[in-house]
Amino acid sequence: MSAVGSSSHVGRPRAFDMDTALEKALEVFWRKGYDGTSLSDLTEAMGINKPSLYAAFGNKEQLFLKAIEKYESRPCAFFMPALEKPTAYEVAEHMLYGAAANMATKDQPQGCVVIQGALSCSEAAAVVKEALINRRLEGQQKLLERFERAKTEGDLPASVDAETLAQYLGTVLQGMAIQANNGATSEQLRRVAEMTLLAFPRV
Amino acid sequence: MSAVGSSSHVGRPRAFDMDTALEKALEVFWRKGYDGTSLSDLTEAMGINKPSLYAAFGNKEQLFLKAIEKYESRPCAFFMPALEKPTAYEVAEHMLYGAAANMATKDQPQGCVVIQGALSCSEAAAVVKEALINRRLEGQQKLLERFERAKTEGDLPASVDAETLAQYLGTVLQGMAIQANNGATSEQLRRVAEMTLLAFPRV
DNA sequence: TGATTTTTGTACCGACTGGTATATTAATTT
DNA sequence: AAATTAATATACCAGTCGGTACAAAAATCA
Lengths: 203, 203
Fold this sequence. Notes:
Number of strands of chain A: 0
Number of helices of chain A: 10
Oligomer: homodimer
């Protein structure tokens, strides 16, 4: 109803809020994946028609990529702050418990759209698939850098292979997304997180 | 070329081998997912036309389900034998190293079709998605039963929560499938397996 | 050989796919 | 008020989707 424009523009005002429309699109992509989502699914969920969608977001592919940006900034907001925790253990702790809480909540689709948005997909989704792989690798790279820093800061044993540790933690986190899709509860994921942390190397 | 029939049947003989055609179908579903695979993709890969496909396999959904059965009996053949290892640790060991070798080999698509065949999908794939979730849960249930047996047999500490341990191992295995899709090598997955085993509870 | 049975290739089905042309509507600018 | 700008709704586009009708072809049975 209200077009919240940062500044008044000439021409007919947009009748929908781009941000909430993008959130709706994200939810559909998250639940159905890129290939499984049709433009009809999108326009229905967003409450707009196709020309409005194309004028505002480009096309299906660009809409998906913008939805992913929104996902990382909001629904998946636990990742970046976790990296700022003072020790490697606390980083892993916050990331694992954050994932446990986030991936199995009923407020949103189960799992993680970066993992399940285009895991196996048609050639039409190749760009999207690559983008998602890159997001996952970037996240793991951030973990690696954080663990290397932890070694210099002394809260992670020097004997630990930071690369393998980052890949191992990434594996558990990504596995938790599948578990959430399987119907695992947050409580179950929390126990998996706990077991993972029991073995986490500390000084 | 040769229709390997168990017994000679009346009528025009089938011009293709059902088993190899099913393998081709499996490979396409594995790479592209259920929604991302079209009948044209299938008939092209299988080297047959649509009426032959429907006569031999039913429809797209039934073809997928039959392809999954084949997957579990062959490409994913490491799972069941691993359960027969004498101790819980060895079960986990064979399962993890089996997955590391299997999910990142160049001989076949990366990852695991049971995980990536229909993770997020359209309503048209709902039956397939449920079937895959059940396969994953069944696998985890087998792990749970094996670990409970191990506790009675004494090679797994009685203090261990078998359910959480099975879920944890399932999480790592499923995470390895995502890692393989990210481009991880078998060597990298082997190191993740190694790190997982370092923390595995033993008597 | 002729009748029967089954698979094959072709051609087609309605429905839906992602995407757009066009005209109308609603705002600002002059 | 007239002109300009941009978003709306409708109707449409070619192409593809999963699935099938139909007739020719290739085997066995009688």
